[in-house]
TrEMBL record:
Highest taxon in the source lineage: Bacteria
Keywords tagged on the record: DNA-binding, Transcription, Transcription regulation
InterPro entries in the record: AraC_E-bd (IPR010499), GyrI-like (IPR029442), Homeodomain-like_sf (IPR009057), HTH_AraC (IPR018060), HTH_AraC-typ_CS (IPR018062), MarA-like (IPR050959), Reg_factor_effector_dom_sf (IPR011256), Tscrpt_reg_AraC-type_HTH (IPR020449)
Single GO MF annotation: DNA-binding transcription factor activity
Transmembrane segments: none
Species of provenance: Cytobacillus praedii
Alphabetized Gene3D superfamilies for the sequence: Homeodomain-like, Regulatory factor, effector binding domain
All residue ranges annotated as the HTH araC/xylS-type domain in the record: 8-106
Protein name: AraC family transcriptional regulator
Pfam families the UniProt entry points to: GyrI-like, HTH_18
């Protein structure tokens, strides 16, 4: 229950500072977790990325201000964090369907995105199969991309190269551990971006085309997913954050998260989600 209260305190800080610069490190401290953890928890509990939520709240307040007060569009744009009237107008029109100038007119239809709070709910008892793994520190080698998630979408450009590139075969040449499969790694997760790797675990040194990342020793909780993808995996991620974590006695530890391709010939849809955890104090 404390974690839900901490999240709501963090949301209250965000709400009070929508017309100012938001300190995301302070947000995380209020929620008693890291910035990485807060972004993951928020996105899965809320069903929307933190950056998108903040943008929608600011544009809601901006619309009300334009409609009810005699203010200039550029002043409202600057107040809510936009560097130019053009960028503000594009974002405003994407949400409201009309321009900021039109919002000033009587009878203009506007959309409202209310402030969010979290509460603990009891959900149906569908089972979740998981196990814990104590894994020593290891190293991954792979390709890295910083993915912009401002719009709440996650589609790395690397994926476009996979069908016409032997990237996976080149990576497999490095694989020499008891973890032979391809790993899809998320690291340094922030409100509007994350580092994404397609990698393998290895003891070898990377060549110039690949990046190395050292993973510290940590306790992992592992969930298997099987079924239509990506729907099954996304649903499992959601249940981990919305159901399993709040009731498990564990919290997120500082490390990466990754999906492990199982390459099971009897179930090509099978994957594992690996989440770093530690006992909750």
């Amino acid at each position: 229950m404390d974690s839900i209260q901490n999240m709501n305190r963090a949301l209250a800080y965000i709400e009070a500072n929508l017309d100012d610069e938001i300190d995301f490190q302070l947000v995380a401290r209020i929620a008693c977790c890291s910035e990485h953890q807060f972004n993951r928890l928020f996105s899965f509990l809320a069903g929307i990325g933190l950056a998108e939520y903040i943008r929608n709240r600011r544009l809601t307040l901006a619309a009300i201000e334009l409609h009810t007060n005699d203010v200039k569009v550029i002043d409202v744009a600057i107040k809510y964090g936009y560097s130019s009237p053009d960028s503000f107008s594009r974002s405003f029109q994407n949400l409201h369907g009309i321009t900021p100038s039109m919002a000033k007119e009587n009878g203009s239809l506007l959309k409202a995105y209310p402030p969010m709070t979290f509460q603990l709910t009891i959900k149906g008892g569908a089972e979740m199969n998981f196990h814990f793994v104590e894994k020593k520190a290891f190293k991954i080698v792979g390709v890295k991309e910083i993915v912009d998630t401002t719009d709440g979408e996650f589609y790395p450009e690397i994926w476009n190269k996979l069908e016409n590139d032997d990237l996976l075969n080149r990576l497999q040449c490095f694989s020499n551990t008891d973890f032979p499969e391809i790993l899809h790694v998320s690291a340094n997760i922030k409100a509007n971006s994350r580092d994404y790797y397609i990698a393998v675990a290895t003891t070898k040194d990377a060549t110039h085309e690949f990046t190395t990342l050292e993973i510290p020793a940590v306790t992992w909780v592992v969930f298997k997913t099987s079924g239509p993808q990506p729907e099954t995996m996304l649903k499992t991620w959601e249940r981990i954050y919305a159901e399993w974590l709040p009731s498990s006695g564990y919290e997120l530890a500082e490390s990466i998260e990754f999906v492990r391709d199982l390459n099971d010939p009897t179930d090509l849809s099978a994957n594992q989600i690996w989440i770093p955890v530690k006992r909750r104090n």
